[in-house]
Amino acid sequence: MTEVVIVAAGRGRRAGGPFAKQWQTLRGRRIADLTLDAFLAAPGIGRIAVVLHPDDLPLAEPWTENPRVLAVPGGDTRADSVRRGLEALAPGAAADARVLIHDVARPLVSHALIARVIAALQAAPGAAPALPVTDALWRGDGDDDSTGNRTGVGTGIGIGARVVGTVDRTGLFRAQTPQGFHLDAILRAHRVHPGGAADDVEVARAAGLEVVIVEGEERNLKITAPGDFARALGMMEADLDIRTGNGFDVHAFGDGDHVTLCGVAVPHDRGLSGHSDADVGMHALTDAIYGALAAGDIGRHFPPSDPQWKGAESRIFLAHAAALAAERGYRIGNADVTLMCERPKIGPHADAMAAALAGILGTASDRVSVKATTTERLGFTGREEGIAAMATVTLVQG
Protein backbone atom coordinates (compact mmCIF):
# COMPACT_ATOMS: atom_id res chain seq x y z
CA MET A 1 0.00 0.00 0.00
CA THR A 2 1.08 3.57 -0.71
CA GLU A 3 0.58 6.14 2.03
CA VAL A 4 -0.53 9.73 1.35
CA VAL A 5 0.07 13.15 2.87
CA ILE A 6 -2.46 15.80 1.84
CA VAL A 7 -1.18 19.27 2.70
CA ALA A 8 -4.15 21.42 3.76
CA ALA A 9 -2.79 23.74 6.44
CA GLY A 10 -2.50 26.89 4.31
CA ARG A 11 -4.81 29.86 4.39
CA GLY A 12 -5.13 30.29 0.60
CA ARG A 13 -5.67 34.07 0.69
CA ARG A 14 -5.10 34.63 -3.04
CA ALA A 15 -8.17 32.53 -3.88
CA GLY A 16 -10.47 35.05 -2.22
CA GLY A 17 -13.67 34.07 -0.46
CA PRO A 18 -14.72 34.18 3.19
CA PHE A 19 -12.41 31.38 4.33
CA ALA A 20 -9.50 29.20 3.21
CA LYS A 21 -9.92 27.75 -0.28
CA GLN A 22 -9.88 24.12 0.87
CA TRP A 23 -13.14 24.74 2.74
CA GLN A 24 -14.87 26.46 -0.16
CA THR A 25 -17.09 24.35 -2.38
CA LEU A 26 -17.32 23.04 -5.92
CA ARG A 27 -20.73 21.69 -6.91
CA GLY A 28 -21.77 21.67 -3.27
CA ARG A 29 -18.77 19.79 -1.88
CA ARG A 30 -15.75 21.14 -0.01
CA ILE A 31 -12.54 21.09 -2.00
CA ALA A 32 -10.82 19.21 0.83
CA ASP A 33 -13.52 16.51 0.70
CA LEU A 34 -13.14 16.13 -3.06
CA THR A 35 -9.37 15.75 -2.77
CA LEU A 36 -9.56 13.27 0.09
CA ASP A 37 -12.21 11.18 -1.66
CA ALA A 38 -10.06 10.98 -4.80
CA PHE A 39 -7.33 9.21 -2.82
CA LEU A 40 -9.65 7.11 -0.66
CA ALA A 41 -11.15 5.60 -3.81
CA ALA A 42 -7.84 5.14 -5.67
CA PRO A 43 -6.44 1.59 -5.91
CA GLY A 44 -3.38 0.78 -3.83
CA ILE A 45 -3.78 3.63 -1.34
CA GLY A 46 -3.41 2.92 2.38
CA ARG A 47 -3.47 5.53 5.14
CA ILE A 48 -3.94 9.22 4.45
CA ALA A 49 -2.58 11.94 6.71
CA VAL A 50 -4.45 15.21 6.11
CA VAL A 51 -2.35 18.03 7.56
CA LEU A 52 -4.53 20.93 8.72
CA HIS A 53 -4.14 24.30 10.35
CA PRO A 54 -4.70 23.66 14.07
CA ASP A 55 -7.79 25.91 14.00
CA ASP A 56 -9.29 23.72 11.26
CA LEU A 57 -9.04 20.36 13.03
CA PRO A 58 -12.75 20.39 14.03
CA LEU A 59 -13.64 20.58 10.33
CA ALA A 60 -12.05 17.15 9.85
CA GLU A 61 -14.38 15.37 12.27
CA PRO A 62 -16.41 13.69 9.48
CA TRP A 63 -13.19 12.10 8.18
CA THR A 64 -11.84 10.68 11.39
CA GLU A 65 -14.52 7.98 11.52
CA ASN A 66 -12.53 6.34 8.73
CA PRO A 67 -9.60 4.43 10.26
CA ARG A 68 -7.50 5.14 7.16
CA VAL A 69 -7.60 8.92 7.73
CA LEU A 70 -5.38 10.79 10.20
CA ALA A 71 -5.97 14.48 10.94
CA VAL A 72 -2.59 16.04 11.74
CA PRO A 73 -1.97 19.61 12.97
CA GLY A 74 0.30 21.50 10.58
CA GLY A 75 3.31 23.73 11.13
CA ASP A 76 4.29 27.31 10.30
CA THR A 77 5.41 26.50 6.74
CA ARG A 78 4.42 24.02 4.08
CA ALA A 79 7.64 22.07 4.67
CA ASP A 80 6.86 21.87 8.41
CA SER A 81 3.39 20.56 7.60
CA VAL A 82 4.69 17.94 5.18
CA ARG A 83 7.23 16.73 7.72
CA ARG A 84 4.54 16.43 10.39
CA GLY A 85 2.39 14.39 8.03
CA LEU A 86 5.30 12.09 7.25
CA GLU A 87 6.13 11.72 10.94
CA ALA A 88 2.50 10.74 11.64
CA LEU A 89 2.61 7.99 9.01
CA ALA A 90 6.08 6.64 9.74
CA PRO A 91 5.37 4.56 12.90
CA GLY A 92 2.86 2.27 11.20
CA ALA A 93 4.46 2.16 7.77
CA ALA A 94 6.12 -0.84 6.17
CA ALA A 95 9.89 -0.75 5.75
CA ASP A 96 9.55 -0.25 2.00
CA ALA A 97 6.55 2.09 2.16
CA ARG A 98 5.97 4.68 -0.54
CA VAL A 99 4.24 7.99 0.06
CA LEU A 100 2.47 10.51 -2.15
CA ILE A 101 2.49 14.17 -1.10
CA HIS A 102 -0.38 16.17 -2.57
CA ASP A 103 -1.68 19.73 -2.38
CA VAL A 104 -5.29 19.84 -1.17
CA ALA A 105 -6.02 22.55 -3.75
CA ARG A 106 -5.74 20.02 -6.60
CA PRO A 107 -9.13 18.30 -6.15
CA LEU A 108 -9.40 16.94 -9.70
CA VAL A 109 -6.45 14.56 -9.48
CA SER A 110 -7.29 11.37 -11.38
CA HIS A 111 -6.75 7.76 -10.43
CA ALA A 112 -4.73 7.31 -13.64
CA LEU A 113 -2.30 10.04 -12.58
CA ILE A 114 -1.99 8.59 -9.09
CA ALA A 115 -1.26 5.19 -10.61
CA ARG A 116 1.45 6.61 -12.89
CA VAL A 117 3.31 8.13 -9.96
CA ILE A 118 3.05 4.94 -7.91
CA ALA A 119 4.28 2.83 -10.83
CA ALA A 120 7.29 5.09 -11.40
CA LEU A 121 8.38 4.57 -7.79
CA GLN A 122 9.12 0.94 -8.60
CA ALA A 123 12.24 2.05 -10.44
CA ALA A 124 13.14 5.42 -8.86
CA PRO A 125 13.29 6.91 -5.35
CA GLY A 126 11.16 9.84 -6.45
CA ALA A 127 8.53 10.58 -9.10
CA ALA A 128 6.36 13.59 -9.83
CA PRO A 129 3.89 14.66 -12.54
CA ALA A 130 4.55 17.66 -14.73
CA LEU A 131 3.52 19.25 -18.00
CA PRO A 132 5.98 20.70 -20.52
CA VAL A 133 5.93 24.48 -20.86
CA THR A 134 4.50 25.28 -24.30
CA ASP A 135 3.88 29.03 -24.07
CA ALA A 136 6.56 31.59 -24.79
CA LEU A 137 8.16 32.90 -21.59
CA TRP A 138 8.90 36.59 -21.09
CA ARG A 139 10.84 38.39 -18.41
CA GLY A 140 9.21 41.65 -17.27
CA ASP A 141 10.87 44.58 -15.52
CA GLY A 142 8.21 44.89 -12.82
CA ASP A 143 7.87 48.69 -13.19
CA ASP A 144 5.11 50.59 -11.43
CA ASP A 145 2.00 51.31 -13.48
CA SER A 146 0.24 54.68 -13.57
CA THR A 147 -1.46 53.97 -10.23
CA GLY A 148 1.84 53.40 -8.46
CA ASN A 149 1.22 49.67 -8.01
CA ARG A 150 4.10 47.25 -8.54
CA THR A 151 2.18 45.26 -11.12
CA GLY A 152 5.04 43.07 -12.24
CA VAL A 153 5.97 41.86 -8.78
CA GLY A 154 3.92 39.39 -6.79
CA THR A 155 0.60 39.94 -8.55
CA GLY A 156 0.85 37.07 -10.99
CA ILE A 157 -0.42 39.41 -13.73
CA GLY A 158 2.32 41.88 -14.63
CA ILE A 159 0.02 44.41 -16.33
CA GLY A 160 2.02 47.56 -16.99
CA ALA A 161 5.39 45.83 -16.85
CA ARG A 162 7.57 45.93 -19.91
CA VAL A 163 9.00 42.91 -21.69
CA VAL A 164 12.77 43.00 -21.20
CA GLY A 165 13.65 39.55 -22.46
CA THR A 166 12.59 36.01 -23.23
CA VAL A 167 13.37 32.75 -21.50
CA ASP A 168 14.22 29.55 -23.34
CA ARG A 169 11.46 27.07 -22.49
CA THR A 170 13.42 24.01 -23.64
CA GLY A 171 13.40 21.42 -20.88
CA LEU A 172 11.04 23.44 -18.66
CA PHE A 173 8.06 21.79 -16.97
CA ARG A 174 5.11 22.90 -14.86
CA ALA A 175 5.25 20.88 -11.65
CA GLN A 176 2.19 19.18 -10.20
CA THR A 177 1.35 16.90 -7.31
CA PRO A 178 1.11 14.19 -6.04
CA GLN A 179 4.86 13.88 -5.73
CA GLY A 180 5.89 10.38 -4.73
CA PHE A 181 8.87 9.05 -2.77
CA HIS A 182 10.08 6.21 -0.65
CA LEU A 183 8.72 7.27 2.71
CA ASP A 184 11.83 6.75 4.81
CA ALA A 185 14.03 8.62 2.31
CA ILE A 186 11.82 11.70 1.96
CA LEU A 187 11.30 11.86 5.73
CA ARG A 188 15.07 11.87 6.28
CA ALA A 189 15.40 14.57 3.61
CA HIS A 190 12.81 16.77 5.31
CA ARG A 191 14.39 16.35 8.72
CA VAL A 192 17.71 17.83 7.51
CA HIS A 193 16.49 20.38 4.96
CA PRO A 194 17.06 24.01 6.05
CA GLY A 195 13.69 25.16 4.68
CA GLY A 196 12.54 27.44 1.90
CA ALA A 197 12.04 24.74 -0.74
CA ALA A 198 9.44 25.32 -3.45
CA ASP A 199 8.15 21.75 -3.17
CA ASP A 200 9.07 18.26 -2.05
CA VAL A 201 11.01 17.52 -5.23
CA GLU A 202 13.43 20.27 -4.27
CA VAL A 203 13.77 18.75 -0.80
CA ALA A 204 14.42 15.33 -2.31
CA ARG A 205 17.00 16.56 -4.78
CA ALA A 206 18.84 18.46 -2.05
CA ALA A 207 19.23 15.07 -0.32
CA GLY A 208 20.61 13.50 -3.48
CA LEU A 209 17.44 11.63 -4.46
CA GLU A 210 16.71 11.18 -8.14
CA VAL A 211 13.21 12.27 -9.21
CA VAL A 212 11.70 11.14 -12.51
CA ILE A 213 8.97 13.04 -14.32
CA VAL A 214 5.68 11.35 -15.21
CA GLU A 215 3.02 12.79 -17.46
CA GLY A 216 0.78 15.30 -15.70
CA GLU A 217 -2.75 16.35 -16.60
CA GLU A 218 -4.25 19.73 -17.47
CA ARG A 219 -7.30 19.00 -15.34
CA ASN A 220 -5.05 18.52 -12.32
CA LEU A 221 -5.02 22.27 -11.82
CA LYS A 222 -4.17 23.94 -8.53
CA ILE A 223 -6.84 26.33 -7.30
CA THR A 224 -4.94 29.50 -6.51
CA ALA A 225 -6.82 32.55 -7.81
CA PRO A 226 -10.57 33.31 -7.81
CA GLY A 227 -10.92 32.40 -11.49
CA ASP A 228 -9.61 28.90 -10.85
CA PHE A 229 -12.90 27.90 -9.21
CA ALA A 230 -14.73 28.48 -12.49
CA ARG A 231 -12.04 26.58 -14.41
CA ALA A 232 -12.28 23.61 -12.08
CA LEU A 233 -16.07 23.67 -12.21
CA GLY A 234 -15.97 23.65 -16.00
CA MET A 235 -13.69 20.61 -15.98
CA MET A 236 -15.98 18.83 -13.53
CA GLU A 237 -19.01 19.54 -15.69
CA ALA A 238 -17.20 18.20 -18.75
CA ASP A 239 -16.63 14.91 -16.93
CA LEU A 240 -20.10 14.79 -15.40
CA ASP A 241 -21.33 11.25 -14.75
CA ILE A 242 -25.08 11.03 -15.39
CA ARG A 243 -26.97 7.79 -14.83
CA THR A 244 -30.55 6.79 -15.58
CA GLY A 245 -32.53 3.94 -14.05
CA ASN A 246 -36.02 2.50 -14.53
CA GLY A 247 -38.27 0.69 -12.10
CA PHE A 248 -41.55 -1.20 -12.43
CA ASP A 249 -43.79 -2.76 -9.80
CA VAL A 250 -47.24 -4.30 -9.45
CA HIS A 251 -49.45 -5.02 -6.43
CA ALA A 252 -52.84 -6.67 -6.38
CA PHE A 253 -55.82 -5.33 -4.50
CA GLY A 254 -56.80 -7.00 -1.24
CA ASP A 255 -58.75 -6.17 1.86
CA GLY A 256 -58.55 -2.66 3.29
CA ASP A 257 -59.97 0.84 3.28
CA HIS A 258 -57.05 2.75 1.70
CA VAL A 259 -54.00 2.39 -0.49
CA THR A 260 -50.58 3.91 0.27
CA LEU A 261 -49.12 5.44 -2.88
CA CYS A 262 -45.87 7.40 -2.94
CA GLY A 263 -46.07 7.86 0.80
CA VAL A 264 -49.65 9.17 0.89
CA ALA A 265 -52.64 7.24 2.27
CA VAL A 266 -55.45 7.50 -0.28
CA PRO A 267 -58.98 6.41 0.78
CA HIS A 268 -60.26 3.47 -1.27
CA ASP A 269 -62.62 0.57 -0.83
CA ARG A 270 -59.73 -1.87 -1.11
CA GLY A 271 -56.11 -2.05 -0.02
CA LEU A 272 -52.98 -3.33 -1.76
CA SER A 273 -51.43 -6.70 -0.90
CA GLY A 274 -47.73 -7.07 -0.37
CA HIS A 275 -44.96 -8.15 1.99
CA SER A 276 -44.36 -4.54 3.09
CA ASP A 277 -46.91 -1.72 2.94
CA ALA A 278 -47.26 -2.40 -0.82
CA ASP A 279 -46.53 1.19 -1.88
CA VAL A 280 -46.23 0.34 -5.55
CA GLY A 281 -45.08 3.84 -6.58
CA MET A 282 -42.34 4.03 -4.01
CA HIS A 283 -41.17 0.52 -4.86
CA ALA A 284 -40.83 1.40 -8.53
CA LEU A 285 -38.87 4.56 -7.69
CA THR A 286 -36.60 2.69 -5.29
CA ASP A 287 -35.80 0.11 -7.95
CA ALA A 288 -35.10 2.90 -10.44
CA ILE A 289 -32.43 4.33 -8.14
CA TYR A 290 -30.88 0.92 -7.52
CA GLY A 291 -30.93 0.35 -11.28
CA ALA A 292 -29.11 3.61 -11.99
CA LEU A 293 -26.45 2.54 -9.51
CA ALA A 294 -26.29 -0.99 -10.96
CA ALA A 295 -27.08 -2.15 -7.43
CA GLY A 296 -29.82 -4.71 -8.00
CA ASP A 297 -33.33 -4.24 -6.68
CA ILE A 298 -35.30 -4.02 -3.44
CA GLY A 299 -35.28 -7.79 -3.06
CA ARG A 300 -31.49 -7.86 -2.95
CA HIS A 301 -31.30 -5.29 -0.16
CA PHE A 302 -34.50 -6.20 1.69
CA PRO A 303 -35.28 -9.89 1.01
CA PRO A 304 -39.01 -10.72 1.29
CA SER A 305 -37.95 -13.92 3.02
CA ASP A 306 -36.75 -11.84 5.97
CA PRO A 307 -39.67 -11.42 8.42
CA GLN A 308 -38.33 -8.10 9.76
CA TRP A 309 -39.53 -6.39 6.57
CA LYS A 310 -43.10 -7.72 6.74
CA GLY A 311 -45.41 -4.71 6.83
CA ALA A 312 -42.43 -2.29 6.73
CA GLU A 313 -42.95 1.22 5.47
CA SER A 314 -41.59 1.58 1.96
CA ARG A 315 -39.95 4.88 2.88
CA ILE A 316 -37.27 2.72 4.54
CA PHE A 317 -36.40 1.21 1.16
CA LEU A 318 -36.44 4.53 -0.69
CA ALA A 319 -34.33 6.25 1.97
CA HIS A 320 -31.77 3.43 1.74
CA ALA A 321 -31.54 3.77 -2.04
CA ALA A 322 -31.16 7.55 -1.80
CA ALA A 323 -28.46 7.22 0.86
CA LEU A 324 -26.59 4.68 -1.27
CA ALA A 325 -26.66 7.11 -4.21
CA ALA A 326 -25.33 9.93 -2.02
CA GLU A 327 -22.62 7.65 -0.61
CA ARG A 328 -21.43 6.97 -4.16
CA GLY A 329 -21.35 10.68 -4.96
CA TYR A 330 -24.67 11.12 -6.80
CA ARG A 331 -27.61 13.46 -6.32
CA ILE A 332 -31.12 13.23 -7.69
CA GLY A 333 -31.40 15.06 -11.00
CA ASN A 334 -35.08 14.29 -11.31
CA ALA A 335 -37.51 11.48 -10.59
CA ASP A 336 -40.70 10.65 -12.50
CA VAL A 337 -43.34 8.19 -11.27
CA THR A 338 -46.39 7.06 -13.27
CA LEU A 339 -49.18 5.19 -11.48
CA MET A 340 -51.44 2.99 -13.64
CA CYS A 341 -54.94 2.34 -12.34
CA GLU A 342 -58.64 3.04 -12.94
CA ARG A 343 -59.26 3.92 -9.32
CA PRO A 344 -58.58 5.62 -6.97
CA LYS A 345 -58.13 8.98 -8.66
CA ILE A 346 -54.53 10.12 -8.30
CA GLY A 347 -54.74 13.73 -9.50
CA PRO A 348 -56.01 15.26 -6.23
CA HIS A 349 -53.10 13.68 -4.34
CA ALA A 350 -50.25 14.00 -6.88
CA ASP A 351 -48.69 17.13 -5.39
CA ALA A 352 -48.70 15.65 -1.88
CA MET A 353 -47.12 12.47 -3.24
CA ALA A 354 -44.36 14.39 -5.01
CA ALA A 355 -43.65 16.37 -1.85
CA ALA A 356 -43.48 13.18 0.24
CA LEU A 357 -41.05 11.55 -2.18
CA ALA A 358 -38.90 14.70 -2.37
CA GLY A 359 -38.65 14.78 1.42
CA ILE A 360 -37.37 11.22 1.56
CA LEU A 361 -34.98 11.78 -1.35
CA GLY A 362 -33.65 15.01 0.14
CA THR A 363 -34.30 16.99 -3.01
CA ALA A 364 -36.54 19.85 -4.15
CA SER A 365 -40.16 18.98 -4.91
CA ASP A 366 -39.84 20.47 -8.40
CA ARG A 367 -37.43 17.64 -9.23
CA VAL A 368 -40.06 14.97 -8.52
CA SER A 369 -43.09 14.23 -10.68
CA VAL A 370 -46.04 11.97 -9.88
CA LYS A 371 -48.74 11.41 -12.47
CA ALA A 372 -51.29 8.77 -13.36
CA THR A 373 -52.82 7.06 -16.36
CA THR A 374 -55.39 4.36 -17.05
CA THR A 375 -55.04 1.42 -19.41
CA GLU A 376 -58.40 2.14 -21.04
CA ARG A 377 -60.02 -0.74 -19.13
CA LEU A 378 -57.51 -3.17 -20.59
CA GLY A 379 -55.52 -5.72 -18.61
CA PHE A 380 -55.46 -6.34 -14.88
CA THR A 381 -55.36 -2.63 -14.02
CA GLY A 382 -58.29 -2.03 -16.36
CA ARG A 383 -60.21 -4.79 -14.56
CA GLU A 384 -59.31 -3.07 -11.27
CA GLU A 385 -57.41 -6.08 -9.98
CA GLY A 386 -54.43 -4.00 -8.86
CA ILE A 387 -52.15 -1.04 -9.48
CA ALA A 388 -48.94 -0.87 -11.48
CA ALA A 389 -46.25 1.80 -11.39
CA MET A 390 -43.21 2.68 -13.41
CA ALA A 391 -40.51 5.17 -12.50
CA THR A 392 -37.50 6.78 -14.09
CA VAL A 393 -34.74 8.54 -12.19
CA THR A 394 -31.68 10.50 -13.28
CA LEU A 395 -28.66 10.59 -10.96
CA VAL A 396 -26.04 13.27 -11.42
CA GLN A 397 -22.54 12.95 -10.00
CA GLY A 398 -21.88 15.47 -7.24
Question: Which features characterize this protein?
Answer:
single chain, 398 residues, alpha/beta, Spore Coat Polysaccharide Biosynthesis Protein SpsA, Chain A, 60s Ribosomal Protein L30, Chain: A, 8-stranded mixed sheet, 11 helices, 28% strand, elongated, multifunctional enzyme, MECDP_synthase
Structure in words:
This protein is of the alpha/beta class. It folds into three domains: 2-132 and 171-238, Alpha-Beta Complex (Spore Coat Polysaccharide Biosynthesis Protein SpsA, Chain A); 135-168, no CATH class; 242-397, 2-C-methyl-D-erythritol 2,4-cyclodiphosphate synthase (60s Ribosomal Protein L30, Chain: A). The chain has eleven helices and 19 strands. It has helices spanning 31-40, 78-89, 111-120, 183-192, 200-206, 227-238, 280-292, 298-301, 315-327, 350-361, 379-382; strands at 2-8, 25-26, 29-30, 45-52, 69-73, 98-103, 126-132, 137-140, 163-167, 173-175, 179-182, 211-215, 242-254, 258-261, 264-267, 271-272, 330-340, 368-373, 386-397. Helix 10 (350-361) links the parallel strand 17 and strand 18 (368-373). The longest helix has 13 residues, at 280-292. The radius of gyration is 28 Å and the shape is elongated. The relative contact order is 0.11.
